[in-house]
Specification:
The structure is a single chain. The protein is of the alpha/beta class and 463 residues long. The protein has two domains: 211 residues, Rossmann fold (3-Layer(aba) Sandwich), CATH 3.40.50; 161 residues, Rossmann fold (3-Layer(aba) Sandwich). It is built from 16 helices and 13 strands. The strands form three sheets. A six-stranded parallel sheet has the order 10-9-8-11-12-13, with helices on both faces. A four-stranded parallel sheet has the order 4-5-6-7, sandwiched between helices. The chain is globular, with a radius of gyration of 22 Å. The protein starts with 8 loop residues before the first helix and ends with a helix.
């Protein structure tokens, strides 16, 4: 998925990188999009910020789990893309729900292939190393993985697939798309099911098949054991088909190499971003209160509930919490947060931000909080905080702990531990010079220009 329908860190990074590379090279973006009235594999064309975009419809109508990583329909669509674009380089940003066969198809046409690993999709079918019960996984492990896979719906459930077939047939016969009315009906029914409660939503809800219709009923695990090993065996083949994989996280690199990805085909490369929107930011006076900020999706794995509970233990007259982020992907979770904060006059839910609005949000923030419960690789919000000169409190995991040095340019807290988050936040109230000391030590984020120049060098380097 891609802009403007889906806005997250990977999409923002890809958009910025594409525009920078397009200053000297021809760039085309290929992405997927769910359009339930069109057949999977259909290709649509548009432009985003002046860059040509080819949207390949993928409605996640899988017959087998194997289709999530070895999908002949998506491979066929990608071959048509290759024939049209004839690229010299294909830079994959994500292959989840595409097909792992895409790099081999690009290589067969003489293109150099590079992939950026932004999360754990190579070793975790759910991509975040969080199992179906919401527990953090240290590494793939057979018994735990097959139980998780068996209890996760990776594609559309049967009822949804039936409706997709009907809407596809109707559009083929009449040309009438009913996607938007169906989305409205879905949102309306969901509100009725919650007793009519209205919450903030974006224009279009994002569907996450990893979290849909998860069942607690006993299931036969044996077929999933075979699927687990088949997917794991495919990892080394994927690594051999790529000329190079890069990742901004040493933690992620070590994890995928431990599971069979060729060590000589992956390297760590810091991500660069456009600094222009953050130039000259001056924060507004705090009027005596410590202002905490959270910018990100309101989703369980982001750990906002942990931050909120720890925050509510602090003196009300001394702190303020500002929360920005979309709620449409996880409505019930967002409502839980609203209920938690209902009696707190110093907690403010400020809705989604457009990209131009993000730098301005940091004018009213003294410390940025990233309480994620999973090993985030290179969170955009941390890099944006650094560009804005705002220190961070982060969960001491993975790429978050790599970006922020504990007690140097930010603080680490134990992920999911409300008591430890309270302890860390209290330090900011009790140590008058701490905030300034952390802010003065923030390291510069690599520029987009420097990052693009590094990539151009890698694009031209052969195996």
């Amino acid at each position: 998925m891609y802009l403007p329908e889906h806005r997250a860190g990977i999409e923002t990074y890809t958009d910025q990188l594409a525009r920078e590379l397009a200053k000297t090279d021809d760039v085309t973006i290929t992405t997927t999009r769910k359009i339930i009235s069109l057949e999977t594999g259909t290709i649509r064309r548009c432009t985003v910020h002046g860059i040509p975009v080819l949207e390949v419809v993928n409605n996640l109508s899988f017959d087998r789990f194997e289709d999530t990583w070895k999908n002949p329909v998506m491979e066929s669509a990608f071959e048509r893309v290759l024939d049209e674009v004839r690229p010299d380089v294909v830079h994959f940003q994500h292959l989840m729900y595409w097909s792992w066969g895409l790099p081999a198809l690009a290589n067969a046409r003489g293109a150099r292939t590079v992939a950026t690993l932004h999360d754990y999709w190579t070793i975790c079918p759910r991509s975040q190393m969080i199992d179906w019960r919401g527990r953090l996984c240290a590494a793939p492990e057979e018994s735990r993985c097959i139980e998780c896979m068996a209890h996760t719906t990776f594609g559309q459930p049967p009822a949804a697939r039936k409706w997709i077939r009907r809407l596809t047939a109707l559009r083929r016969a009449t040309g009438v798309p009913l996607d938007e009315p169906m989305r409205w009906l879905q949102r309306h029914r969901a509100r009725l099911a919650r007793g009519g409660t209205r919450i903030r939503t974006d224009r279009e809800p994002a569907d996450d098949p990893r979290n849909a219709n998860e069942s607690t009923h006993p299931v036969d695990l044996e077929p999933w054991r075979e699927a687990f090993h088949a997917r794991r065996a495919a990892l080394s083949s994927l690594g051999n088909d790529l000329d190079l994989a890069i990742t901004p996280s040493e933690t992620l690199r070590n994890s995928v190499v431990a599971e069979g990805f060729p060590a000589d085909r992956i390297r760590v490369l810091a991500q660069g971003l456009d600094h222009t929107p953050f130039a000259g930011i001056e924060r507004n006076p705090s009027r005596g209160k410590l202002r905490l900020g959270f910018l990100g999706t309101l989703a369980p794995h982001k750990g906002v509930h942990v931050l909120l509970e720890a925050f509510q233990r602090l003196p009300t007259d001394a702190v303020e919490l500002r929360i920005w982020g979309p709620s449409s992907q996880h409505r019930e979770y967002a409502e839980r947060l609203y209920d938690m904060a209902r009696s707190s006059t110093n907690v403010h839910f400020l809705g989604s931000l457009t990209k131009p609005e993000v730098p301005g949000a940091y004018r009213d923030v003294d410390i940025s909080c990233v309480p994620s419960l999973w090993n985030e690789c290179c969170p955009l919000t941390i890099q944006e905080s650094m560009m804005a000169g705002v220190p961070c409190v982060v969960s001491g995991l993975g790429g978050m702990a790599e970006l922020i040095r504990d007690d140097v340019d930010g603080l680490h807290a134990t992920p999911g531990d409300v008591d430890d988050w309270e302890r860390v936040l209290r330090r900011l109230l009790e140590e008058p010079n701490l905030l300034r000391r952390l802010g003065d030590a923030i390291r510069p984020v690599p520029t987009l220009e420097h990052h693009a120049s590094q990539l151009r060098e890698l694009y031209t380097r052969r195996r």
